[in-house]
Structure formats: C-alpha cells, structure tokens
Amino acid sequence: MKTTQSLSIALGILLLSGCYANTVTSNQRIRKDGWLSTHANVRVIRETEVSDDLLRIDVEVENTLPFDTRFDYKFEFLDAEGRMLFGPTTGFRQEQVPAGAFVTITATATDPLAADFRLTLTNAD
Amino acid sequence: MNHALSSYPLAVALAVGAFGVVGCQQNARVVTDDRDKIVSIDQIDVQDWSNAADQVLQQLFASGALDTAPVTPARVEVTRVINDTTQRIDTDLLTQKIKIALQQSGKVAFASSDARANEVADYEDFKAGDDAPRLPFFVINGKILEIRASAGATKQSSFVFQLNLVNTAQSLDAWSGEAEVTKQGTRNAKNSKG
User: Fold this and answer.
1) Which of A80, A111, B12, B89 suits a disulfide with A115, CB 3.0-4.6 Å?
2) B184 CA to chain A: closest CA distance, Å?
C-alpha cells in the first residue's frame, strides 16, 4: 500500500517536472521554451529593409535571471503567403547573455520575397 | 543448488556488462538540427560554415555595397579564398553558401567556371559580332585563418573568415567583412549542449 502511494507521488512529481520542462510560450512569431519562457524578455523587435528590399530583423532579448546563461536561436523567413523560404545559412546559432543584460540577435533574409519571420528561442544548457 | 547460487553473481555481472556495452552503442540516425551536430574543438564543423557565411552575408547586405553596381544583377566572380589553417578544407563550403544567398537576392549573377558554357557563350558572341570580353563588375576573394590557444587541459580554436568584395572598375575594396567562430573545451562534444 505504502509502495503504491510512494510510486504515485513519484509519478506525479515526474509528470509535473516533465510538464514544466516542455513549457512553451509562443506568439505568432516568437517561440520560447525552457528558462526562456519565463526569463527571456523580448524587449524590442525591429523590422527594417537593407540593400533596398531585403528584410532584416533585430530582436533584443533580455536575461532576467541573476546569472549568465546561453540560448540557441533560429530565424526562418516566410513570403507574403506564409510559405517558408529556403535559405542556405538557416540554422541554430548560439548566444551568451550576462545576468540581467540583453543581447541583440539579428537576421537578414536573402530572398526579397521575405515578408514575415519566425524566431525560435530555445535553452542551450 | 550450491552450484546455481555460486553462478548467480557471475550471471548478474555478465548481464550488467552486456547492458553497458549495448547502452554505449548508438544506432546511426539522420541529423537535421544543428544543435545535435558534433562540435569539434580543432576543426571547422559543417554548422560552422553556415554560421560564418551568415555573419558575412549580414554584413555585406547591411553595407549596401552591392547596390553600387551600375546594372542589376551585377556580374561577379569568386577568384580565390586562401586556406591559411592547418586543415585541408574545401573553401567552396563557404563560397557556395554565399553564392546561393547572393543569387537569391537577385542583386548579382555569378560568372560560370564551366568550360563548355564559356565556349558556347564565346561562340554566340562571335556570331553576333560582339568581341567585348565578359568582365565582372565585382570580384570576391578572401582568406580563412586559424588561431589556437590552450590553458591547462582546455583547448580553444578560433577560425576567422575574411572576405572582400572588390569593385573591378576602380580596383577598390567595395566591402570587407569578417566572421569568427571560436570553440573551447577539453574534448569534442556530441552536440551543442556539450
């Protein structure tokens, strides 16, 4: 009986921690997981054009944790109809951010058809 | 009975050993996520080429240098990217990514290095009475360097990718860019999480 109770408690804790680890916050454009869900504050998103017609995105990410940390990020670009655009350099990059400070991550679309973007911020540790 | 009992620990040890051996093995799989790719300390990994190309392309597009060409798309040739590292590397791993991205932007067109294509184009020019050589407006050249350092058992390798876009009409560097990839650790890692 006691064993069953202990097992149930252990299973409950495991499930809860599992749920926490998989927590994902997301809006239309930015998806975050892990510590970033609660402690990565996206301060500014700047959308500009460089070289006449190429979409450039600058995103300021603030680390509200009391220690230095790292995160991975990936930008993807979409055309006006929501279709994913191929880019030869698309992939995850890693960034370090000091405690309480912020970093600016950037990406430039190589295709002038780019009209929108998706950003994934994910735990690197 | 006694014999069965004495062989029991041996059977357990064998089972644990077999489990350990099987546990260390990993079946091959296709890796599509950069975070799952092997990180080597002393060599340029496949994801590093993409990272370096991305850094220099962002600098190039932001500079506006491509927009100085009198016609669009401007003709470009990649002349030479010097490998000044201790590794034997194919610099096309960098230049091809840059070519794809620049062509995708519609701002430049790369001169082909295909002998047959050049032969056909020369013949077409000859038929049309056009004897002007096909000259590039821009030339891309560059260099890849390596800097190593260590502190105790920790090793560090930095790879620096330098590129120049030369305006051939004036023989001036219209743009120069640099990207750096630095890796540190005591041994290679199976993925980016170390």
Assistant:
1) A80
2) 14
